[in-house]
Structure formats: structure tokens, C-alpha cells
Amino acid sequence: MRKLFFLFFLPLLIGLTAEAANDVVFKASAPNAVVMGQQFQLTFTVNAEGKDLRVQEMPDFEVLFGPSQSKSYSSSWVNGKSASETTVTYTYVLLAKNEGTFNIAPATIKVNNSNYTSNALVIKVLPPDKTDDAAQSNAASASSGVSDKDIFFTINASKRNVYEQEGFLVTFKLYSRDPQVGLSDVKFPEFEGFLAQEIELPENKQWTMENYKGTNYYAVILRQTVLYPQRSGKLTIDAGKFDVRVRVRTQQPVRSIFDDFFDSYRDVNKTLTTTPVTIDVKPLPSGKPASYANAVGDFKMTSTINSNNVKANEAVTIKVAISGTGNIRLIKNPEVVFPNDFDIYDPKVEKNNTRTTTAGVTGTKTIEYMAIPRYAGDFEIPAVHFSYFDVKSGTYKTTSTEAYKLHVEKGEGGEGGGPVVSNFNNRESVKYLGQDIRYLKVKGVNFVSNDEIFFGSFMYYLCYLIPALLFIVFFFIYRKQVKENANIALVRTKKANKMAVRRLKNAGKLLKENKKEEFYDEVLRALWGYLSDKLNIPQSNLTKDNVEVELTKYGVGETLINEFMDILNTCEFARYAPSQASDAMDKLYELTVDAIGEMENTIKK
Strands 360-373 and 348-357: what pairing? Predict the structure, then answer.
């Protein structure tokens, strides 16, 4: 019976022990930053009864107390099953000896005859506050006010001198002596002249200690954006405005011994502004290669082909993948040259997997090129060239793929290597025309008399006369249109509304799909493109100021101009604001359509 018992229950006991062991969590925790001369706690927590705690030596810190052990128990009852957990905490009180960044090695503990290792910690030791700054801050608090040294915002640009299309990081950070700060009205500056790519930050932003100009503050990053300048020259990031609410301790005259134990506080509202930042943007050097694709950064390119042996009428697909860090979302598709007798389709961006980090926008852009061969034979698809500007070396670099040898066999419907054509109504349907040689007929030959021959007859000459007369008539009717088409600026102006309508249709699709950021980007492109075509000004030279001046010259009313400016400001702000309601997006879409229509009625050419 003992043998049967161990045979059946020993595996079960081993499984339960292993499952319990796998649930053991041993964790170390301490502040990320401390001030030299101030005490702080280092804790080790394990969710089981443990023994033989071993902590590595900490030569950079002085152990004032510890370890002190505390236990806590918790139990729960879920779905008829009870569960309990024991948590044991070991606490040390430490004091930093020197300034700098120091490591605390992992500790070990034994639970159920198994050893477990905690995580390592990195602690930054900050210098103590300067005496003058601390005195000023205490004086401001004593007077129940909040000074500019108690709380302020900063804009930090990782680079002040960049090339056109070179990305750099902009960080908005709040510094405060007290982390209990509330933000009510936040107006980040507009990035006029830049393409902005936002970095996703956690919803619950964490305060960390940081020494700024000799004073220790609690700091939190509110926003990080990677900017790509779209033109050269001096571009300015305007000042931001922030309304904050600070909790301030109020000192009162001592009336009893209990007044020392109870402090009173009040909320103080304060408006903070940031200093504008100027970025010096250098133009890209001359001598751009023919294969330059508007790419600035560090990239590499690879390509693949679906098959080197296909039949006529079968699709040939080449995929080109461009990966790296830089303005990858703005690069142009490299050119793939297919043989002349191939039906070529527009390239399609299959994947655009990118992510925005503090180092820039990183990812891969995959473009698919497809063509259909019409003839049987051997062909060569030349190598694809892709050029970009390398910021580190300050030079243009070119990367190339391999050339592909393609063997095309006869299609299913053809016996020889004769031509094949596409049915352009449905380019998926391709048929074989026939053989190259037509044999002479030797039987069943019928002769036709001269009177029945069409060549030289009245109808023959009439077929020449009628098209000539029609050509002259249409020439006089449309000669005005020919003159207008010769004026490129006038053509752009007349087609401005059509281009805007086309872009707004795309925005309407994005609106139905509830793609907020893409919707506002498409509306912005529609408005800026419309104004560029209508006013015959390159889009790179357009600003809100010169748009107002040009529209005024054309006699556009102030109300309509303000409506256009409001739509532009709403779109640019909505891309960085919290999620907008669908009815707000619908209303913006209708206002844009109405504004462009009213502008068309106002500016007629």
C-alpha cells in the first residue's frame, strides 16, 4: 500500500511544489534618485516564507539600520476556492556617501530549499541644494507665494543646428519643488515649419528627482516629440503656456502647542510660459544623386523576387524593404525598371512598420512592385538604387540591390513566342493574339471589280474631308482652352478645387474608419495644397501670415480668412490633443468643405 501511495501521489506533490516554486517573486526596490546626506530605504520583498537572505556589499552606501523584517498575510475566496499569501519584507536604511550613479547588486534568498535572486538596482545620488536657492524657496513658501524657482517649464531641444529633414528630439519637462501639482490649461507651441512625430508616454507619468542648476527638483516629462524641419533657415519653436495649481503650506501664528502638529495649505494658481527655441536648419549639400529619395538618416535596402522563372501573363513581384532610422515616413519609393514589354502596375506600400523613440523614427518600409510579362524570353531587371543623406558623415550614400535574371516561358494559350496583350478594362485578363506567320490562301479566291473598290471612291475622300473639317472646328472652339493650358499657374489655380475635393474624399474615408491622426493630417494636406495651388505659391513657402496677406489681395473677406485659420489651428492642435469626439470631427469636415466652396465662389479666375 505504501508503494502504491507514493506511486500515485508523489508526482502530484512534486507538481504542486513546482507550481508553488514558480509563483515565488523576490523583488528589490529603492528610489531612482536620492540626495546625498539624506536617508532612504532599500527593501527586499518575497511572497513566501524565506530564510538565509544574502545581500551583497554596498561600498557606496552606509547602512544605518537593517535589515528589519515584517510580515503581512492576505486571503481571498473566489469561486468557492480559498487562497492565501504571505509577504515578507526586509528593510534597510541607507545613506549615500558620494555623488554619482551607483549599482546595488542582486540579493539571494532561500525558499523551500530553492535559491531565488532579486533584480539589480541603479540609484543616482544628487548633490544637496545650494544654500541661496534653498533660502529663496523657503522665503517664497513662507510668504504663501510660489516663485519662478519653485516651479517652471523647460523646452529642451537635443540639437540646435540640424540639416533639412534631419530629426531631433524636443522634450517638455515640468520642474517643481513639490510633486503635488495640477495642470488645467496646457497649450503646447505649434511646430510651424516642422513635421512632428509624437513619442508615446505612459498615461501615469512618474515624477523623478533631478538636480537642475544646483537645486533638486521633482521632474516629469509631459511631452516628447521628434521634429523634422521641412525647409532651411532659422525656424522658431514658439513659447508654450501652462496653467498650474500648486499646493502651498500656510504659516500661521502659534496660538497653542497643537499648532505645530497641524499645518494648513492652500492652492495657488500660476501661469507658466516657456522660452522660444530657435533652430538653425542648414540646406542639404548640392550634388544629390539621381536616385536620391528625400531620405535623411541611416538606412539600408534589401529586395526579393517571387520567382525567376514565370510564364507569360503571370505576375512578377519584387519587394523592396528600406529599414533604418530617420525620416522614413517621408522617403520616396525607389524606381524599379522593368523591360519595355511588361505591363507595369503602380507600386504599393505593403508595410510601414515604424515606431517613434527618443533616438528618432525607426522602422521598415516595404514596397511591392508588380509587372506582367507579355512575351516569352530571357529578360534582366536592373539593380534598384536608393540614395540618402547620412547626417553623421555629412555625405550622400547609395545602396543597391542585386539585378535579377528573369526567364519567361510561353503562356498557356500560345504555341510560339508571339505577342500577348492585356485587356485594359480588366488587366487580370490576358489573351494570346495568334501566330507570327499567316499562310497565303490558295483556294476560294474571289475577285472584286473596280466599281466595288473603296479606294479612290467618293466615300474614301469624304472620310478624309470630314475629320479635317472637324479638326478646324474644334481648333477654333478650344483655342482659348489651349492658351489657358499653356499658363501653368492658371492651370494649377483651376485644378485647386479638384485636388482639394480628392483629398477631402480620402479624409472622409478616414473619418468613417475613426482614424483620428490620419484624418487631421489629410485635412491639413488638403487645405495647404489648395492654398498653394490657388495662390500659386510653393507649399514650402506658405505660412499663416503670408496666406492672410495674399487672400486679402484677392478680396477675400476677413470672416472667411479667419475661418480658414481656425480650421488649420484646430487640425494642428487636434493631432496632439486627447481623442476627439466623432461629432467634432464630422463638424470640422463639413466646415472645411463649406470653406473651400465659399473660397471658390470668392476667387474666380
Answer: antiparallel
